[in-house]
Amino acid sequence: MEEKEINYARLKQGGFLRQRQKEDFFSIRLRIVGGQLTSDQLRSLANAADKYGKGEIHITSRQGAEISFVELEDADAMLNELESANVHQGTCGPRVRGVVACQGDRVCTHGLIDALGIARKIDEKYFASELPSKFKFAVTGCPSSCMKPQENDFGIMGGLEPEWIDDKCTRCGLCETTCPVDAIKIENDTLYFDEEKCNLCGDCVFVCPTSAWIEVKSGYTIWVGGKVGRHPELAIKLIDIVDEKTLFEIIEKTLDFYRENAPAGERFRDTLKRVGLEKYKADVLE
């Protein structure tokens, strides 16, 4: 019987990664937004790994999961079982990859945004969208940058702009002690606030016992053009503190810009360098 030809490019689009073993084994990537799973989903993953693989699950660097040593003839059955448990197929190749996120203000005391909620919205709208090359989103709840937005094509960071009210301040010094970037100094009963140093973490607002520090606005700071790999580069800050509507407008325009200006295989950062950051800004920050 003639051996069936396998379309490996198509398989890769669905998150199938060929293994180095001579047998036709695949490591199958699964779509897990922000690394968040229910206990039922975890049990379904364990069952699938036992039944179709070698009982092993690899947690990827982007909060996903891969089940290895799956034979191609078993892949459909495994994926159908996982789909019924709300665990979905992943992707590889030149398209929007899985979105990584911290837990944001759902759990973390420093969280300024619902990072997981934003990640799920991005995933729902853009996951596996075709692009010139791979494109990675990261959402982090605050300037502690646990999810490393500066290392991703499009990074989103929660931020809070503070304001100081003199007549409410007792000069207790808690804000000065707490500020992680030394933007606040108290000398001779006078408070100095260096807005250029401020990283928009909001710690001064949260620690102040007299509400002398208040929130002016909060939202999303955007970083673009980061990447790691063999030629790593940190992302460039695009804009401080926009609202959710503006955030998604910028995402939409960014992906359109990338599609329109990049040849196949060119990473987004390289497109920005070739076409020009100012051209990009003009297109997306109208």
UniProtKB/TrEMBL annotation:
Query: Native species of this protein?
Result: Methanohalophilus mahii (strain ATCC 35705 / DSM 5219 / SLP)
In alphabetical order, the GO MF annotations are: 4 iron, 4 sulfur cluster binding; heme binding; metal ion binding; oxidoreductase activity
InterPro entries tied to this protein = 4Fe4S_Fe-S-bd, 4Fe4S_Fe_S_CS, NIR_SIR_4Fe-4S, NiRdtase/SiRdtase_haem-b_fer, Nit/Sulf_reduc_fer-like_dom_sf, NO2/SO3_Rdtase_4Fe4S_dom, NO2/SO3_Rdtase_4Fe4S_sf, NO2/SO3_Rdtase_FeS/sirohaem_BS
Q: What is the lineage of its organism?
A: Archaea, Methanobacteriati, Methanobacteriota, Stenosarchaea group, Methanomicrobia
Which residues are in the 4Fe-4S ferredoxin-type domain? 160-189, 191-219
Q: Which UniProt keywords apply?
A: 4Fe-4S, Heme, Iron, Iron-sulfur, Metal-binding, Oxidoreductase
Q: What is this protein called?
A: Nitrite and sulphite reductase 4Fe-4S region
Q: Does the keyword Cell membrane apply?
A: no
Q: Does the UniProt entry include the keyword Membrane?
A: no
